[in-house]
Design brief:
about 260 residues, alpha/beta, Rossmann fold, 5-stranded parallel sheet, binds 2'-deoxycytidine-5'-monophosphate
């Protein structure tokens, strides 16, 4: 079952895709700490679109696997966990807060942001079976369009036909600074900047070199380096792109097939 309203997404492992009409999709990809979440949320609010943080879904499965104490090499068991996990995502009512996440009914919003989950999520996200399950759910959520989806592979694999594709990046140093500020704002104990930068570079390496849907800029994505840009400037660029595409290319609806 999949249901969504402007601020609520409810998903499980099954979906049936057919040839359907949909509204435009904005895909925002890029490495950790480039500002994707903040930008995605603001763009969605301005344009009245749904938004989806797909990283939260990979984090949810990682948490479930860690809790069960499953060996990361046991791909069959991890696949089973991913297939059985019911992930629900809600837009937070509070600006700049991450999406509220429920796993099988339990609120895991904070639990998926711990250093332990962050350190292990790339290994789980590298598993083909996990990606297959979550990508199907993401495609089901976005099949009607009108959504801003952020992740690593949205423009390359989840919605390769997204009308607006952004590859958001920033220097590792800048991203470490932002990550530290975010952690402090969320009441977490933040490591020093050198440690955070090393972690970010390592996560980039793992996400970019994996076999399945690695982090890479889609050929037709617009590269936006956010070093020295304000959030408002980045948001304005994306909103403008969306509006231009809606005016020029979109005749209200297009046919889109997901399989
Ligand atoms: O955006 P984030 O840091 O919460 O993402 C957590 C991890 O999930 C990240 O290291 C890579 C992975 N991920 C992915 O492989 N594909 C996505 N579409 C989103 C996230």
């Amino acid at each position: 079952m999949i249901s969504h309203s402007s601020n609520h997404l409810s998903i499980n492992a099954t979906n049936n895709q057919t040839n359907i009409s949909r509204k435009p999709i904005i895909a925002i990809d890029g490495p950790a700490g480039a500002g994707k979440s903040t930008v995605t949320k603001q763009v969605a609010n301005i344009l009245g679109l749904l938004f989806l943080d797909t990283g939260a879904m990979y984090r949810s499965i990682t948490l479930a696997v860690l809790r069960e104490g499953i060996d990361f090499g046991d791909q069959a068991k991890i696949q089973e966990i991913a297939a059985q996990s019911k992930i629900q995502l809600f837009a937070s009512a509070i600006a700049d807060q991450p999406m509220q996440v429920l796993l099988n009914g339990e609120d895991i919003t904070t639990a998926i942001r711990t250093p332990e989950v962050t350190a292990n999520v790339s290994a789980i996200a590298a598993q083909a079976a996990v990606r297959e399950i979550l990508v199907k759910q993401q495609q089901a959520i976005g099949r009607s369009g009108g959504v801003v989806m952020e992740g690593r592979d949205i423009g390359t694999h989840v919605f390769p036909d997204a009308e607006v594709k952004i590859f958001l990046t920033a220097s590792a140093q800048e991203r470490a600074k932002r990550r530290q500020a975010d952690m402090i704002a969320q009441g977490q104990i933040a490591p020093d900047l050198v440690t955070l930068e090393q972690e970010i570079v390592e996560r980039d390496r793992q996400d970019s070199t994996r076999d399945h849907a690695p982090l890479t800029q889609a050929e037709d994505a617009t590269l936006v380096n956010t070093d020295g840009l304000t959030i408002e400037e980045v948001v304005a660029v994306i909103v403008k792109m969306y509006e231009t595409i809606c005016e020029t290319k979109f005749d209200d609806k297009v046919n889109y097939k997901v399989d």
